[in-house]
Amino acid sequence: MGAEKVNKSPKILVFSTEKISDPAIDMAGLLKLHYPPTVYTITVPCSSGIKSKWILHALEQGFDGVFIAADGTDCPYGESCVDKTGQLVGATQELLKQKGMDPARLKMAAICSVCSEPFVKHVKSFTNYLMNSSN
Amino acid sequence: MKKKIGVYVCHCGGNISDYVDVEKVRAEIEKDESVFLSKTTMFACADSNQKDMVTDIAEKQLDGAVVASCSPTLHLLTFSAVAERAGLNKYNYIHANIREQASWAHSDDKVGATEKAIQIVKAAVAKVKRSNALEPFRVAATNAVAVVGAGIAGLRSAIQLAESGAQVYLIEREFFVGGRVAQWDDLFVSKETGKELITRLYDKAMNHKNITLFTGAEIIENSGSVGNISLKVKIAPRHMKLDCNEGNLGKAIEVCPVVVPDKFNFNITTRKAIYHNFPGEYPQLPVIDIENCTRCGECEKVCENVDFSQKDEFLNIKVGSVLLATGFDPYEPKNDEFGYKTIDNVVTLPQFKRLVHYCDDKLVYKGKEVKNVAYIYCVGSRQVDGDNKYCSRYCCTATIHAAITAKKKYKDLYNFHFNRGIRTYGKQEVLYDESSRLGDIYLQSFEDHPPVVSKEGDKTIVTINDILTADKTLEVEADLVVLVTGMVPRQDNSIGSLLKIPRGRDNFFNEIHMKLRPVETVIDGVTIAGASQGPKNIMESMNSSLAAATKSFSLIASGELSLSPTIAKIDVDNCGWCGKCDDACPFSALTKTDVNGKLVAAVNESVCKGCGMCMPVCPSNAIELIGYTDNQIESMIDALVSTD
Questions:
Q1: What is the CB-side half-sphere exposure of residue B500 using CA atoms within 13 A?
Q2: What ipTM was assigned to the predicted interfaces of this complex?
Q3: What is the pTM of this model?
Q4: What CA–CA distance (Å, rounded) separates A108 from A21?
Q5: B616 and A11: CB-CB below 8 Å?
Q6: How confident is the model over B610-632, as a mean pLDDT?
C-alpha cells in the first residue's frame, strides 16, 4: 500500500454519528469549509457502538486512517458514551500495536453538532500526519 | 442479496451537478450488475420525480432503491415514504449524501468531488444489497398517563387526557393544587382571576371519573419504557382526618405556637404549622406542616381531627406515558441585588402583587403609605454576568398590569418603570399603551448600566442614566422598589433526575426540537408542558399543555406502540453470557435468559434504543445492530476503498 500513497492524498474513513457529528460534517459542506475529498463518512447511531473489527477491516482493506467523530458529552444515549468510546479506541489501538501497525492511524475527537471547523482541522492535520508517516 | 436496485442521482439544480459530474456517477454505478436502473434527475425531491420513482419501483419490481442527493436529515424521510408508496419496505431504501459531503465540501476540487461521490453511491448500493425489510416491533401500551404537577398546566393537561379517554394520575407534590396561578388576582387579557381559573379547572378535573388526584405526592421510583412505565409514588399524610370540623380547626390554628413565613404570599405574611388552604387552593382541607411542627400537641387538645399517627403511603402505578408540568421557581434576588434584603422597602414583583391584594384603600408597606413605586425590570433575567441569559417573557406585561391595577386601586400613586426595553408582545401591547396614558413614567437603561438603588437618610433613591433622555442622570425617590423577578427552573430537579430528562442551556427541561417536536423529550414517552420547559405566560402554558397531552395520548391511544426495529440482536450460538453487554447498556435492555439450557443475553425490544454500546464490549462478537451489521458496514468500507 505504501507505494500508492506517494502522489495520492491518504484515504480516511470517518465513523460519524447520526445526531451529533453528522450535522457538523454536513455543515462543513454547507459552509464550504474544504477538506480533502479522500475523507469518507460512514454513519452510525453512537460512537460507542463502533466495533474494533470494523476499524481493523478498514485499515486492512486500504484506508490509511480511521477517524472517530465522537459524540462526546452530547451523546443522546447518555454521557457514558465518552468513556466507552475512549475505551474502544484504546483497545483497538492496542490491537493495532499487536499487529505491528501504527496505533496513530486511529484517531478520535469529540465533534459536537456545530463543530464544523474543528472537524475540518482534525481531518486536515490527520491527513498531514498520514501523508508524512506513510513510508 | 438484491439484484434489482434503482439508483437516482440528483443534480439539485446545480448544487450538486456544478461540482460533481452526475452523469459520470450514474455511468459508474450502472456497471454494478445489481443496479437494474440508474437515472439522473434535476430535483429528486420534486413531485414529478417522486411519481416516476413510485412507477419505476412498482412496475419494474425493484427490490432496493438509492437516492444520491442532499443530507439525509433533509430528505431521507421523503424517499423512505416514496419507497413505501411503491410497496417497497422503507428499510430497503438507502440515502447517499453527495451534496453536503461531496459537491459542497469539495467545490474546490471537481475531480475529487466526483470520485468521492462515486464511492459514496457505491457504498450505499453495497449497503442496500445487504438490507432486509424490517417491520416495527409492536408492544401493548397502558392507557394511562401520569401528570406531574397540578398547577394550571398540569390541571389542563389532565382534563384533556381524561376527555380523550386516558386514565390520569395527577401527582402534586404540595398539599394543594393550583400552583402559581392560584396566587394571582385579575389577569390579562381576560378579567378572570387566577383563583377563578383554578377553581374552574379543579372542579372539572375532580368531576371527571378518569382523573385521580394525589397531593403531597412524589414519584420516587421509575422503571419500564414508553407504553409500560411503572412508577412508585410516595404520598405524605396531611396529619388530619378527612371529615374536619371547621370550628375546632380554627381553634387549633389559634393555639398553634409555630409561626413560619407563608410561601403562598411570598413570605410577606406568616402562617401557623397547622393551616388551611387559601381560597384559590384545593382541596379545601387543612394540613399540618410536619417539617415545622414541634409536636407540642396543643392542636390535638382542641381539635379531634388532628392525627399524628398517619404515615407515608406508597403506591405503585402503571402508565403508558408521563407528562411533566412541574413549573418554575420565581427568581430569588441575591442579597443586596438592587438593595434586596438590605434596604427595607425593596420587594419582588410576586410580593408586590400579594401586597396589592391585601391593601384595600391605601397601599401600605411596613407601616408607611406608598405613593411612588419604582419597578426595576429584568432582575434575574437577561443577565450579563449570571447564567440566566434568557428573557422571562411574562414579566414586562405582569409588571405593567400590576402597576395599572395599583394605580386604579389607590389614589395618587405614581409608577416609575426602570426598564431595559419593554416587551409587551402581541395583544399585551394595549396594556403598555394604557399605562402610558395613565401617566406612568418609563426610564430605560442598557444592560451594562443598570439603575442603582441607594439609601439616603430615610429615603430610598433609584438613580438611572436614562437613555430615553440622552443619558441624563435621573433620580426617583421611591416609597417602594419592586424588583421585577423572572422565572427560573425548579431548584429541586429530583423528578428530572429520576426520569433522566435533559435540561437546556437555560436549565429548564429540554424538548427534542424547539420548533418541530416542542413537547417531546429524548426519553420516549415523557412529554413536557408549561413553564417547566421555559418561561411562559398562562396562554402559552395552555398551548403547550394541550400539545403535550395530545402527544402523550397519541403514544398510547391505539393500545399498541410501534418501536423502531433497528436494535441489537444476539447471536445465540456465539453468546456465552458474560454480562459485559448488560454492564455497558445505559438502558438495562439486556437480560440473562435460558435458551435450551444455555445462558445467553436477550434484548428487551421495547427498551433497546439501538445505540450499539453493547457491541464493542462483547468478547465473542455475538451482538449485531440491525441496519448496521458487520456485513453491511464492511461491505460499505470495501466499496469506499474499491478502485474497480
A1: 13
A2: 0.95
A3: 0.75
A4: 12
A5: no
A6: 96
Q: Which CATH architecture has domain A9-130?
A: 3-Layer(aba) Sandwich (3.40)
Q: Using a CB–CB cutoff of 8 Å, tell me whether A104 touches chain B.
A: no
Domain chopping of chain A, boundaries: 9-130
On chain A, the residues whose CB falls within 8 A of the CB of B639 are none
pLDDT digit string, tens, across residues A45-96: 999 999 999 999 999 999 999 999 999 887 888 778 999 999 999 999 999 9
pLDDT tens figures, B169-214: 999 999 999 999 998 999 988 889 999 999 999 999 999 999 999 9
Residues B169 and B212 sit within 8 Å (Cβ to Cβ)? yes
Q: Tell me whether residues A77 and B113 touch, CB distance under 8 A.
A: no
Q: What are the start-end ranges of the E strands in B258-371?
A: 259-261, 270-272, 274-275, 287-288, 313-319, 321-324, 328-330, 346-348, 364-365, 368-369
Distance between CA B82 and CA B356 in Å, rounded? 62
Measuring CA to CA, which residue among B85, B16, B2 is closest to residue B44? B16
Non-local CB neighbours of B106 within 8 Å, separated by 6+ positions: A34, A35, A37, B19, B112, B113, B116
Give residue B249's Cα distance to chain centre.
41
Instruction: Go through the domains of chain B in sequence order and give each one's CATH number.
Output: 5-133 (3.40.50), 135-236+312-327+490-562 (3.50.50.60), 238-309 (3.30.70), 334-487 (3.50.50.60), 564-626 (3.30.70.20)
Residues 6+ apart with CB under 8 A from A55: A15, A66, A92, A106
Q: Give the nearest partner residue to A57 out of B99, B586, B634, using CB atoms.
A: B634
pLDDT at A5: 41
**Nearest CB to B101: which of A25, A44, A61?**
A25
Backbone phi, then psi, for A66, in 5-degree steps?
A: -125, 130
Helices in B466-607 by DSSP H: which ranges?
Answer: 494-499, 538-556, 580-584
**Cβ–Cβ < 8 Å for B34, B66:** no
**The pLDDT of residue B329:** 96
Q: Does A36 touch chain B (CB under 8 A)?
A: yes
Q: Is B497 on the interface with A (CB under 8 A)?
A: no
Peptide bond just before B283 cis, omega within 30 deg: yes
Element (H, E) at B252: helix B246-255
Cα–Cα distances in angstroms (integers) from residue B634 to residues B223, B253, B567, B619, B639, in the given order: 37, 76, 19, 19, 9
Describe the strand order of the beta sheet including B459-466 as a list of residue ranges: B452-456, B459-466, B472-478
pLDDT, tens digit (0-9, with 9 covering 90-100), for B69-115 = 999 989 999 999 999 999 999 999 999 999 999 999 999 999 999 99
Average pLDDT over residues B139-146: 95
Do A37 and B105 lie within an 8 Å CB cutoff? yes
Dist. CA B582–CA B169, nearest whole Å: 32
The helix (run of H) or strand (run of E) holding residue A127 is: helix A116-133
